[in-house]
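Worked example

This section walks through a single chain of length 174. The input is the sequence exactly as stored; nothing has been trimmed or padded.
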Amino acid sequence: MLCPHKILSTYLSLWLWIVYCFAEHQSPQHNLEPSQNPEEIFMRLFSQRRTEQINAVKGILRYDEKKREIMVNTVTQKIFEVIKSSRAILEGAGYVPGMSKFPEDEKTRDALSNILENTSLFGDMVLYIPDIASPILSAHNEYNVLLKWSLLFINQPNYWTRRQLSKCLWYLKS
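Given that input, the structure is written out below as tokens.
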């Protein structure tokens, strides 16, 4: 007989995986003009995704403490898997932020997007759910190293406004 906790954990993991995969493979096309350059389109899509992510993190707050802990653990694990694999893709492509031109190939652009979005998402979790997210970061040295790398990476080009970047860095330094 299956334990109710295992059923809940499996259900939440499956749900998060489905939501993540759906969000990762959807490309909202509204408000995009063909005359815009690829970097402008990229940043507009990034801004739209950030709104969705903040709402998702706020949605996690509606759950009871145990469900919230399970969700944050699961999402955090996925975030750092994505950052790690995206880092390998960017380094393999020779992409250097602030020095390389905006990536033309989709795989490199997706990796860049994944770094920006997942670093931001974890920052939101530290901001809104610090009692769960901060200890996870402290307990996993690899996460800490990846987070520092991704923060340095995104600080190179001007993908963020100064206000967004300083706010994110301030919350993650604690």
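What to look for: Confidence is low (pLDDT under 50) at residues 1-32.
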